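Internal tracking record. Fields below are filled automatically when a chain is submitted to the structure queue. Please do not edit lines marked as system-generated. If the sequence contains nonstandard residues, flag them in the REMARKS field before resubmitting.
Queue: standard
Priority: normal
Entity type: single polypeptide chain
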Amino acid sequence: MNLTLDATSEKRIQRELERGHYREPSEVIAHALALMEDQEDWLRRDKDAINQRLDESHAQIQRGEGISEPEVRAILAADRARRVG
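SYSTEM-GENERATED OUTPUT FOLLOWS
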């Protein structure tokens, strides 16, 4: 099989090769496909639990139990600062 990749994908594969994690482009692609399959399996396996949690979250927001956008941004900024600094 021959593949034609866009420039961005080629650069990403080349970057992984340069990092030394893989020897061949096919290894990068195989790993990416394995990750994709794992994610699809997880979503399929946990779909009901994920949907239930989303429903619960939506109900909380409807009851006014959520937090405002500025509060979310402040929490994320503080978390980012902890990780960086």
